[in-house]
Known about the structure:
single chain, 3-methyladenine DNA Glycosylase, Chain A, 9-stranded antiparallel sheet, 4 helices, 28% strand, disordered N terminus, disordered C terminus, DNA-binding
Amino acid sequence: MTGIRSRTAASSSDPAEERRLGRAFFDRPTVGVARELLGARLRVTAHGLTREVRLVETEAYLRGDEASHAFRGPTRRNRSMFGPPGSLYVYRIHQVVCANLVTRRGEAVLLRAGALLAAGDETATGPGRLCRALGVRIEDDGVDVTVGSRVAVFARRVRPRRIGVGARVGISRATERPLRFWIDGDAAVSRPRPALRPGR
DNA sequence: GAAAAGATTACCT
DNA sequence: GGTAATCTTTTCC
């Protein structure tokens, strides 16, 4: 189709190795999903344009987690977090939007950074920039990524050698929990904020 | 209805 | 290192 699409297909999307992640992948404990999404590919098609990233940084938000938007139960904004596993939860913060993948009811994985596959491996660092780079919009809130062609997630082909673990970014409660994960040593992860310091 | 806060980012010193 | 921008949702009175 488009030039970008064919470059993507030629360089990184061997159809023989595409394995789309389905409901069962997301219907598991959230920390495991957050870790296994590292290296997975997220593909978004909007306005006839397809963009794709390899995820390199994620965060888990759990039940009973004071930092989670779902902590006080469903509201208009967070209702997608209570949808089926594999739902997209997109919320607006200041002037940007951020995207999560819902796991089990009321839990989700925030997508913090990814390497853009069709743009010379440029990195989209930060959840707002990641969504902007992919073309994710607030209207994508609630989209089921396990069906349809708008948004799809594909399993990683190789397990990351080392996964960094640290505190989540930008929260004011439950700030110490080691629920942020990144591919340690990956070229796309330049310096993803310090890991949780032992004993502090 | 009013006020505060925010899972961010860009720009400042 | 710190803070302003900027606006929707949530919370409180």
